[in-house]
Automatic annotation (TrEMBL):
Lineage summary: Bacteria, Pseudomonadati, Pseudomonadota, Alphaproteobacteria, Sphingomonadales
Protein's name in the database: Uncharacterized protein
Top-level lineage group: Bacteria
Length: 80
């Protein structure tokens, strides 16, 4: 894995953790932000409209996946 792809994976992990945390703590506000005229992202939040508990659960999954991705990148870096 190249240094550039490691950095891209780390950036993706950071995004996943941050977006997951916002979705966990402020699901309704976060969904409302992306509901309209969001450059195509509005279809991603459609399943969560009016369902803050579902968005919170998805937020937990995002955080876990982001942390797993970041941990994997650290392990690869340590072997290099």
């Amino acid at each position: 894995m190249t240094q550039l792809s490691r950095r891209a994976a780390e950036m993706a992990a950071t995004f996943m953790i941050g977006d997951g945390l916002l979705g966990l703590l402020q699901p309704s506000r976060h969904i409302a932000l992306w509901q309209e005229r969001a450059g195509g992202a509005q279809w991603l939040v459609r399943p969560f409209i009016g369902r803050p508990t579902l968005r919170r659960a998805y937020g937990v999954a995002q955080i876990a996946a982001g942390l797993a991705l970041a941990a994997r990148q650290r392990a690869i870096t340590e072997r290099s």
